[in-house]
Amino acid sequence: MCFMFCPKCGKVAEVNQKFCAGCGADLTSDGNMLTQPAVPHTNNTAAVRPAAPVKPVPAVPQKNNSGLLFRIAGLLAAAAIAVSAFLPFWSYSAEGRSGSLSLAEYGLPGVIVCLIAAAGVLFSAAGVHAGNIGCGIAAAGYAILRDINLESMIERDYGSDAASMLELLDSGAGFYLLLSAGAVLLLLGIIGLAVSRKQN
Predict the structure, then answer these.
(1) Which of 141, 143, 132 lies closest to 194, judged by CA?
(2) pLDDT tens digit sequence for 57-80
(3) Rounded to an integer, what distance in angstroms lies between the CA atom of residue 76 and that of residue 141?
(4) For 42-64, b where at least 16 C-beta lie within 10 A, e where not — what string?
(5) Full-prediction pTM beyond 0.70?
(6) Sheet holding 2-5: strands in order across?
(7) At 198, is the secondary structure helix, strand, or coil?
(8) By C-alpha distance, which of 123, 119, 122, 169 is closest to 139?
(9) pLDDT band for position 151 (50/70/90)?
């Protein structure tokens, strides 16, 4: 389809139209008709804009509760270490008599165990796994050291009667609690350290 423009006013007119609807000029004279291909009409004159690039939505990190569990377990183990200082570390029974002795009653050993427990509480609360490893080794090692030290003291003081004296002595609940709590704190520190390195 073709259309033309009026040479005077420029209004669009159909090809077979004789006079301009705008100014009334004669469109049939030679040279007055200017034609060109018609442009298809569209109702949507707005330019088509390219779609905006979609930004990838970052994945929401899932909450990891393992750190909290390690802290709680470490605090419980450190508290057990402190309690062990007040429980019977050694117990004895001879000639119808029985008794026990705790590290707190023994003096300085009780203070040392409480200091180890305090350090374990601090390291567990802060999530310092290497510190828990050190406290666990210190607690379990000190339990074994105190037990060996008592045996050596008895052997030194009683000489030939040391064997019979050692038979009367038994390790108490304080010894086993200190040993096991130290081992648990050590294990928690090792596992926690491995988990944190794997996550990083």
Answers:
(1) 132
(2) 665 555 556 678 888 999 999 999
(3) 19
(4) eeeeeeeeeeeeeeeeeeeeeee
(5) no
(6) 12-14, 2-5, 34-37
(7) helix
(8) 119
(9) confident
